[in-house]
Fold these 2 entries.
Entry 1:
Amino acid sequence: MTDSYVCPHCGHIEERPYRVRLIVLTCPDCGENGRFIHRSLADRLDEVPEPQRPEDWEEMPLDDRLRYAIREELLDISFTGPI
């Protein structure tokens, strides 16, 4: 069984045989280096209410969106417990 990780820049999906919150990779599609976040976390970004998103939300890389949502307490995500 594999888990999916999403490129923060272009949305490319990488499969890995392990389950962690994020992995640092260079994307084979866009060539950017970044924090690929677990697909389940990427999907949770849709839970952030639109009125609470910054103006540039759609342009922000996924990992920046996730950090913003956690910092602003818009998502409750534990980095020590299960995903």
Entry 2:
Amino acid sequence: MEIDKVSKFILNRLKNGLTNESNLLHELNKAKLNTILMKSNMSIERFYSDVIFTEKERGSLLCNLLFHCSNPDLVLNNINWKDFEIIVSSAFDYSGYSTLHNYRIKTENKSNIEIDVIAFKFPFLFLIDCKYHKKSPPSYYSKAAVLQKKRLDYLIEVFPEIYSDLITRLGLPVRNVVKLIALVVSWKNVPIKISDGVPIVPLFKLSSFLKEIDEFEDEIYKFSFSISYSTSAIS
């Protein structure tokens, strides 16, 4: 099966810049394109200009394309792991979360690490590992869950050094309890599972997982904390 014309057109625009392929779009396809642009909060004029889209614009376009195209798997096969991370970040944006992409934690006394996406909407603060792998054994995601759990434990250790940055950039509340949760998001459309206390959630079930997270809380490994300005620490 071939990728549909609208999906191909948008992907080419993102990869290669402005092209003249719009002349080949049927009126019905143009209507579909306009719908995706509207849901992405992008004007037709900007899409057809020669600007380089911001990461947020790119993520919004790809996210809406996936949820409105005829074959999402074909679209996913035509992107790379960097785009997948941006899509996951945008999916959290659409669910009302504040997000940070490729968040690097640099400390004086410990190793530096990078977290694909951090997402916050009170009371949940997610540390997300985005897994875009077309062929992987079943154990792959379980191992990813173990590593993501270790990253969460690491963040707890260094939190006094980064809390002010997260307050500024994500709007973390002071003196309110926040629940820190490790999460793995996969592009493979498989059932949601909890591995070693870490949820493994496919992209297309992420929205429902976030809405129903209370049902999973007892199984999830999490750390609840509140921030105190006076002590510059968590409790």
